[in-house]
Write a structure and sequence with these properties.
This protein has 134 residues and is an all-beta fold. The chain is built from no helices and 11 strands. Strands 3-4-5-6-7-8-9-10-11 form a 9-stranded antiparallel sheet, with no helix packed on it. A two-stranded antiparallel ribbon has the order 1-2. A hairpin with a 5-residue loop joins β1 and β2. The two termini are 29 Å apart.
Amino acid sequence: KWKKPDGSEGGARNTVTKILDGKVVEENFVGNGTDKMPGLKGRSLSVKEATSGVWKQTWADSQGGFIVLSARVDGDKKMFVTEGEESFQRMVFYNIKKDSFTWDWESTTDGGKTWKLAWRIEYERRPEEKKPTK
């Protein structure tokens, strides 16, 4: 869930599955739409590249978006970052817990000196998907 610019709450369902002998993580994102506009649909594939050991991700969506990202870690924040000289974007994952985390989409136009938050999503595992504790 997230806050839209008008203050209303947005939502989506994101299904994440390991595929291809557990080597690839597939994400299927379906945003809640409205009567006037369908929700965003997107899919990503993430894989730990065998030669470099770096996680890579591709993203494509129903609005014609296509992004290629590489993983980075900065302290307790885990990120996927687009490539670029001065202008690029990143997904930042933090407050990571067993059943939730915070996800920020940020951009920079000065080579990473400053970052602008585009949106923040609070991810929560759906109750029926929580694994029972032993």
